[in-house]
Amino acid sequence: MSLISVQNLSVAYGANLVLRNVALTLEPGEIVTIVGPNGSGKTSLLRAIIGATSPSRGMIALKPGLRIGYVPQRLHIDQTLPITVERFMRLTDNVPGATCRTVLEAAGVPDLLGRQMSQLSGGQFQRVMLARALINQPDVLLLDEVTRGLDQPGVAAFYQRIKAMRRDTGCAVLMISHELHVVMSASDRVICLNGHVCCEGTPAVVTSAPEYRALFGTGTSGALALYRHNHDHEHDPPHRTKATG
Amino acid sequence: MLDDFMTRATLAGIGVAFAAAPLGCFVVWRRMAYFGDATAHAAILGVAMSLAMETSIFAGAMATALLMALTVTRLAGRNYAMDTILGVWAHSALAFGLVAVSFLSGVRLDLMAYLFGDILAVSWSDLLVIWVGAALVLALMAWRWPALLTSTLSEELAYASGLNPRREHLILTVSLAITVAVAIKVVGVLLIAAMLIIPAAAARAPARTPEAMAVIAAVIGGISAVAGLQSAYLLDTPAGPSIVCVAAVICAVMTPAKLAGSKD
Fold it and tell me: Which residues lie below 8 Å from residue B95, measured CB to CB, with a gap of 6+?
């Protein structure tokens, strides 16, 4: 069965309907990218999938016993909370120290075990977050706008790591991104969300076209791809449906 | 026996310090300091009602503290910010409590004991209640520790791991109410928040992990209770405030200037 199956999902905050009739499935080993502008309900969809937001209508079915590795967009650790990288790695799963070391080595940050989380740089922090999400061999990795704030080579390097991870472990990936046109080339499907599913398709891999080469530079090794939106409808401004009364 | 009341007082102080230490860490990490304060202030209304109805002070204080914490949590974020709601509800409860006590005859002296604590009057049965309450709080903290810590770091991370952060918040709220109830005799409602926050704040600088911070806070709280009581005995000062003074001095000494001051 599908790892995640979302049917007819609507989410409302008070009278504000942020998602309506959204359908989505994620199969084992699949990489699905959800793109959409700010306020399009991407984060609400992710929150609904992990159970942090209750749907007002519709159904979300997770495969029984599904292990989720979750990487939030950012994580504010209060200055008053002392926590080493090693302790953070063991936050939800009590894994042995040797495993922590191996996983951090694989993430390219082998020397951070004893460091305080609050002292990490942005890049180190994100590697640690990804390593923690992967430590218990999840069936699916949920990435919440994790490339926000990275420059293009940084994004490309991150996508390369995700691609390699999927190849090595077969873990499915569901990621949301605010970047509408440039997506991870390894995405099996791209879903454009704007309150509802606007369009769905595969990314156009553009490694060979010289003009895109010029646009992306040569350092991205084909990790980025363009997504051509194919909308068959127009949005009336203002877009969001308001409940009457 | 001359030393008997000091023994009971010391044991009572240590019991409260131990329960307050891990809970105090969460109060500091989650920025609930004012929440703890408000919950404690509300307890005086419970004390007044218990005195009027001649029921257990512990039960009355715990019930109002719990009710206050749950009400404030429910109302938060609707129309007013949390601190406004806390200010309205907690101070109203304190004021109603003080007025209610004035209707009761012959308890004027007792009131001071509940505002500032009366640790030297702790009986063996009080001590039993304090230690049972403290053990309950410690057991809750130990049982839920990983879940509480994950929920504190990130609500989403907790949900993704199959935890329910709202339930964990409720556990903290219940623990807070129990701690307030057992700490009234020791430091009084006005200084309970100090017993929660000051040892935890003092433990921040030397700690490298959350667990270490909780243990160090417990040790600092215990030392404060013992040293505070001894100095109160020697200098003839009020016992509850003396315990808090010792904790404050330890905190000041242990906090490096760079942590206490501005960030840069």
Answer: none
Is B254 inside a domain boundary?
no
Is B209's Cβ below 8 Å from some Cβ in A?
yes
Domains contained in chain B, number: 1
Chain B residues 155-184 with CB within 8 Å of chain A = 155-157, 159-161, 163
For chain A, say whether B210 makes contact (Cβ under 8 Å): yes
Residue B224 lies in a domain: no
Which residues have C-beta within 8 Å of that of residue A98, sequence separation ≥ 6? none
User: Which residues of A fall within a CB distance of 8 Å from B210?
Assistant: 81-83, 87
> Is residue B216 a part of any domain in this protein?
no
> Does residue B244 fall inside a structural domain?
no
**pLDDT at residue B107 greater than cutoff 60:** no
Q: Which two tokens stand for residue A169?
A: 């472990």
Please compute the mean of the pLDDT values over residues A29-38 and round it to a whole number.
89
Among chain B residues, CA nearest to A73: B156
Whether A91 and chain B come into contact, CB under 8 Å, resolves to yes
CATH of the domain at B113: 1.10.3470.10
Are A82 and B210 within 8 A, CB to CB?
yes
Ordered DSSP codes for B185-208: HHH-TTTHHHHHHHHHHHHHTT-S
Of B156, B201, B207, the CB nearest to A82: B207
Please tell me which of the candidates B30, B146, B213 has its beta carbon nearest to residue A82: B213
Q: What is the pLDDT of residues A52-67, one digit of tens each?
A: 999 999 999 999 989 9
| Mean pLDDT across A147-176 | 86
Q: B89 is in which domain, residue-wise?
A: 4-190
- The pLDDT tens digits of the residues spanning B118-176 come to 888 888 989 999 999 999 999 999 999 999 999 999 999 999 999 999 899 999 999 99
Contact at CB, B156 and A116, closer than 8 angstroms: no
pLDDT tens per residue across span B239-261 = 889 999 999 999 999 987 655 54
Q: What is the pTM of this model?
A: 0.86
Look at residue B222 and give its three-state secondary structure: helix
Chain A contact set for B31 (CB, 8 A): 78
Q: Which pLDDT belongs to residue B259?
A: 54
Helices of type H across chain B: 4-29, 33-53, 57-75, 82-103, 108-116, 124-153, 155-160, 165-187, 192-204, 210-235, 239-254, 257-260
Domains of chain A: 27-51+139-245 (3.40.50.300), 74-136 (no CATH)
